[in-house]
Amino acid sequence: MHIMLFHSTYGLRPAVRSAADRLRDAGHEVHVPDLFDGRVFDTVEGGMAFQQEIGRDELLKRAVLAAAPHSDRGLVYAGFSFGASVAQQLAFGDEKARGLLMLHGTSDVADDAAVDELPVQLHVADPDPFEPHDWLTAWYLRMQRSGAEVEVHRYPGAGHLYTDPELPDYDAESAERTWAVALAFLESL
How far apart are alpha carbons 9 and 48 in whole angstroms? Predict the structure, then answer.
């Protein structure tokens, strides 16, 4: 499987590189673009301020340019938090997308969005301050209406970015369960 993996608002941190290595060890070809040109942040606020400075359109343009050389292979788009939002937008715009793996984040779904049975898997903390229950319910229903085949996996007690061992949100048990389920999902595509 060819996977395009997008980093979180913290930037391309070691945890993202480790995730890519884990996916490669499972036999996947993984591309990890750096949408922030080498910038990494210690806080969510720092990363969000940088995102606003660059602008959403520019960040999406960078993501599209990174994915374009590989999209003819039928990519699985994946990402962490902000990166999951980017992955969702690219997957919905790529008719050859094979799947969408979302860790810790979602994005709005346009009313006219349509995909043809796109397999989607979301892993999210429960509760998650960035992905409240009402939002996730609405997101799930919109994804269903769009034609996506959606699975949602919630992890009680975990923090937002619970798969990153260098952050206070880290939850080793939830992270390992996430990777076991995610790798099985990728294997099924």
Answer: 6
Which spans in the chain are helix H? 14-25, 44-54, 56-67, 82-93, 133-146, 172-188
Mean pLDDT along residues 151-163: 95
Q: Are strands 99-103 and 149-156 parallel, antiparallel or unpaired?
A: unpaired
* Domains and their CATH numbers in the chain: 2-188 (3.40.50.1820)
pTM of the full structure: 0.97
pLDDT at residue 185 in the model: 98
Q: How far apart are CA 71 and CA 77, in angstroms?
A: 10
Task: Name the nearest CA neighbour of 98 among 114, 85, 115.
Answer: 115
Cα separation of 66 and 68, whole Å? 6
